[in-house]
Amino acid sequence: MFSGMVHELVSGRKPESGLLEKRFDAAMTKKLGIVKLPPAFWMRDPKINPRADHLFWASLLIGDRQRVDLAISVIAAELEVNSRGKKINLQRELVSTVQVLVGNLLDTMSDTVLRRELEYGIHGILPEFFPDNLEITR
Questions:
Q1: What are φ and ψ of residue 46, in 5° steps?
Q2: Rounded distance, CA 14 to CA 118, Å?
Q3: Which of 32, 106, 132, 133 is deepest in the core (most CB within 10 A)?
Q4: Count of beta carbons in the 10 Å neighbourhood of residue 57
Q5: Residues 6+ apart with CB under 8 A from 108
Q6: Count of alpha carbons within 13 Å of 102, Cβ hemisphere only?
Q7: Do residues 60 and 74 make contact, with C-beta atoms less than 8 angstroms apart?
Q8: Per-residue pLDDT of the chain (138 residues; tens, 9 = 90+)
Q9: How far apart are CA 121 and CA 46, in angstroms?
Q10: What is the distance in angstroms between the CA of the first residue and the CA of the last residue of the chain?
Q11: How many CB atoms lie within 10 A of CB 15?
Q12: What is the pTM assigned to this prediction?
């Protein structure tokens, strides 16, 4: 669902916000339907079960904290399911995962001006994940 978004970022362009919002909303509706199912029924097809990292990336590009929070909630649900039976600190794992995903998003961007602009915006949207303007590691 978001291959066009990734292609545009790699090509040095920011995806059009209106289209990205529509795709995000449709994909999140699908994703929330999947997350409500028992994990054994979670399909792997990204057209049916959109990737959480792509949802998160799209929410950051849109710059909407509510969409970012939805995407982070989905990431948390997936982490919780994948960590069953393991002793992990879910909160620490979530923070680490979000930080890595932000770094991965910035790494896909070929345009340094666009990347710097997005990085600045991310610090504004997610200050609790990057305290004291902690540099986003890549």
A1: -65, -15
A2: 10
A3: 106
A4: 26
A5: 6, 9, 10
A6: 25
A7: no
A8: 788 888 898 888 889 999 999 999 999 999 999 999 998 899 989 899 999 999 999 999 999 999 999 999 999 999 999 888 788 888 999 999 999 999 999 999 989 999 999 999 998 999 888 876 555 654
A9: 27
A10: 25
A11: 19
A12: 0.90
What's the one-letter identity of residue 123? H
Rounded CA gap, 103 and 116, in Å? Answer: 12
Fill in the amino acid letter for 128: E
Contact between residue 108 and residue 101 where contact means Cβ atoms under 8 Å apart: no
Answer for the pair 101, 57: CB distance below 8 angstroms, yes or no.
yes
Residue 55, both tokens: 């949802």
Look up residue 46 and give its two tokens: 């990204």
| The pair of three-digit structure tokens given for residue 56, joined into one six-digit string | 């998160």
Pick the closest to residue 96 from 65, 117, 75 (CA basis).
75
Q: How far is CA 38 from the centre of its chain?
A: 22
Give Dmax over CA atoms of the chain in angstroms. 44
Task: With beta carbons less than 8 A apart as the criterion, state whether 102 and 68 touch.
Answer: no
